[in-house]
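Q: Sec translocon accessory complex subunit YajC, please. Structure only.
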Amino acid sequence: MSFLIPAAHAQEAAAGPAGSGFEWLFLVGFLVIFYLMIWRPQAKRAKEHKNLIGGLQKGDEVVTSGGIAGKVTKVTDDFVVIEVSDSVELKFQKVAIAATLPKGTLKAI
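A: Structure for Sec translocon accessory complex subunit YajC:
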């Protein structure tokens, strides 16, 4: 019966393709693009926001991340109190402040 099934003979293992360094170049290029387009701008925005939060003072005109504009009346460690209208004050976490406005902007709105 062995004439119907040919005998399998072991062959030497084929050598893999020689590494040309192209794979490493591609990986390094990907990491550089990732750093320049994602990591660096995000770190810059985080640093600017941290400086914004650290520099809040009473009397600053701010906008929250929810779009509420008002004047800071009290600043504590984690919270700020914002006057949004006459005798209407709201308490926000500092991290909710998105931007400061130039002085007099609220009167112009």
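A: Brief note, in case it's useful. The mean pLDDT is 87.
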